[in-house]
Amino acid sequence: MEPHRFEQAGAAYEVAFERAPEGWLARIRQEGSPTVHVVGFPDGPGYDPGDVRGSLVAGCEAAVANLAWAPPTRH
Prior knowledge:
Elements: E1 4-8, E2 11-20, E3 23-30, E4 36-42, H1 52-63
Antiparallel strand pairs: 1-2, 2-3, 3-4
């Protein structure tokens, strides 16, 4: 599945999708950040059968507001 790029609250994000045995994995990365959040979407209710990609994109865009994007620390 093709990656998805979007902007939210002035920040740009890229999502890479991967099919897993139990559902889908989405790797969400904020532009300029080394942090990658992996979000799992299990198979089952919640997908539009005619537009699985659209369902995953909507879930990722909704999840971004709840993910911590702390700056990296220096050691």
